[in-house]
Amino acid sequence: MAGSDGRGASDGGRGSSRLLAGVCVAAGAAYMQGATISYIVTPMLITFGADQDSGAVLREVPSIASLLVIFLSALLATRFGARRIITAGALLLTLGSALVAASPDVTAAAVGLAVQSVGGTILMVVPLAAIGAAFADGDARTRAFAMFSMVSPLVFVLLPVLTAALMERWTWRVVAGVWVLGGLIALLAGRWALPTSPRAGRGGRRAGRDGRRSRQPPRQRRERLCR
């Protein structure tokens, strides 16, 4: 029995480590836009023949889109499960990035950045809840959050260097293509790392019905059972 308990603890530790690795990769993809957008706005304006006011729009749209979804992300993960919501976030990030890469004008690029930002915000918020649920021990949770907090500075150090190297030889659309690749990697990482869970909403509705049934007086419950 002691051996089986040890194997269970080991499996749980591997599962938690896998979850941490997966959500860190997903969050890294979410930070890619913020780390590189300032380097490609001016080339985008030159391509579209747009003015600086359009550049201000391209810079502000992601922040506005992020504010619209940041408070809903954790609630959606609680209702539908972190795996489903991270999958949705990765798909939105990939779709928005592809729209930016293929955009014919400023309007299409702004829409793509907004969609990408919504997906990226989901990939930043939901992993925090997943880590909190997976690591119950205080020390392990502290280490997990410390590792997660290293993702952002790492991306903001490495991605500008990569962006500068790409911009020397190719156009800004190649950078947007790297965003697409990051979204696909986030999709695979999230689905690999997070376990499949039943629909939370269904369980919540069932629990609600059970709770209402248990609050009924005993006589009424017996009458309902006899009908």
Q: What is the typical, i.e. mean, pLDDT?
A: 79
The largest β sheet comes out as: none
Radius of gyration: 22 Å
- Series of H and E elements: HHHHHHHHHH
Distance between the termini: 48 Å
Structure description:
With 227 residues, the protein is mostly helical. It contains 10 helices and no strands. The N and C termini lie far apart (48 Å). Mean pLDDT is 79; it is low at 1-11, 198-216 and 218-227.
Give me the secondary-structure topology:
Elements: H1 2-30, H2 32-48, H3 52-80, H4 82-101, H5 106-134, H6 138-149, H7 151-169, H8 172-193, H9 200-215, H10 218-226
Summarize the structure.
This protein is mainly alpha-helical and 227 residues long.
Q: Which tags fit this structure?
A:
disordered N terminus; 89% helix; single chain; mainly alpha; 227 residues; 10 helices; disordered C terminus
